[in-house]
Q: What sequence folds into this?
């Protein structure tokens, strides 16, 4: 070993990194939460070569880059290896449970999994806060410097994220009795395109409405008022109108979700996944099925799922 380098403590670890819903409607780029399903799973093993390498990627239909310089998992893993001053490299096997360009924080989950796996392999020398910059670097490669998917994926729960540093992250209350119905039409919406559609300036009265919606949203979280939460999330008057044309049947899906008992519906991240807020698990299942059926009737493949916000973020298991 070279002086001051750190050797791996384990032979293999596995990390589960959850999907996340960024924006929560009105809270563009500053709010997000982690959900129980779906997730990415990454296994990591030490290797003699320096740096992070990809052994295989499963579940991405061959779409994601195997080049370590272009994959968010290996970019984040490389950053973490340098922070740790690792004596050797790592080889990652990535199982994509989260579809890319689907609005569920797929690139962020891989980045978080890569960095967390490196940290676990080397015996957890870094705290979550120390790992954040590595995760942000990975995510930035595909969708720029914002951490509204990274933070909930790493820390879990509902997070307020102002900027990309740990000092700007706050855990917010997780609403109790909230169930989510999500539907992902099988089309891709690239985050860069969805961001390019956004206005660069907004009128003062729009700004007042938007900040009002965010304030109501935070208040509703603290009071656990689910109806008020849904209304505040839907109170986004800037981002959704600018992106609506990228989400097929957005308004029809909101109507169907509400007919089946949902309190409200928002675009998940940059879309196209839509997320409806429900008050029990049966209702969430019915809403998810109704939304998926509406897409299928219109000729879109679609995946519906009922899920919930989860408290913990990426989790680690030592395999060997
Ligand atoms: N806040 C981001 C957006 C999340 O909506 O563009 C997607 O990466």
A:
């Amino acid at each position: 070993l070279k002086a001051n380098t750190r050797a791996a403590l384990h032979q293999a670890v596995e990390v589960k990194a959850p999907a996340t819903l960024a924006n929560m409607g009105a809270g563009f780029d500053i709010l997000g939460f982690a959900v129980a399903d779906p997730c990415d799973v990454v296994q990591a093993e030490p290797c003699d070569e320096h740096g992070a390498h990809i052994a295989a990627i499963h579940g991405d239909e061959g779409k994601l880059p195997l080049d370590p310089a272009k994959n968010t998992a290996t970019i984040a893993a490389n950053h973490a290896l340098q922070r740790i001053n690792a004596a050797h490299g790592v080889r990652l096997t990535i199982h994509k449970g989260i579809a890319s360009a689907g609005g569920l924080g797929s690139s962020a989950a891989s980045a978080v999994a890569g960095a967390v796996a490196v940290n676990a392999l080397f015996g957890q020398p870094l705290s979550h806060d120390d790992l954040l910059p590595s995760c942000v670097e990975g995510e930035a490669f595909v969708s720029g410097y914002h951490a509204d998917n990274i933070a909930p994926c790493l820390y879990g729960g509902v997070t307020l994220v102002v900027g990309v540093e740990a000092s700007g992250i706050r855990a917010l209350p997780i609403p109790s009795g909230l169930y989510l119905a999500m539907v992902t039409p099988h089309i891709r919406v690239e985050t860069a395109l969805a961001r390019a559609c956004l206005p660069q300036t907004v009128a003062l009265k729009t700004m007042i409405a938007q900040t009002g919606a965010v304030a109501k949203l935070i208040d509703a979280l603290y009071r656990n008022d689910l109806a008020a939460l849904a209304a505040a999330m839907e109170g986004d008057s800037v981002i959704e109108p600018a992106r609506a044309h990228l989400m097929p049947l957005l308004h029809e899906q909101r109507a169907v979700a509400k007919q089946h008992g949902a309190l409200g519906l928002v675009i998940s991240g940059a879309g196209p996944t839509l997320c409806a807020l429900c008050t029990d698990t049966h209702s969430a299942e019915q809403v998810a099925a109704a939304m998926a059926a509406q897409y299928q009737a219109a000729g879109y493949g679609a995946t519906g799922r009922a899920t919930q916000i989860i408290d913990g973020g990426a989790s680690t298991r030592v395999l060997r």
Observations:
- Residues 144 and 192 are 8 Å apart (CA to CA).
- The longest helix spans residues 204-223.
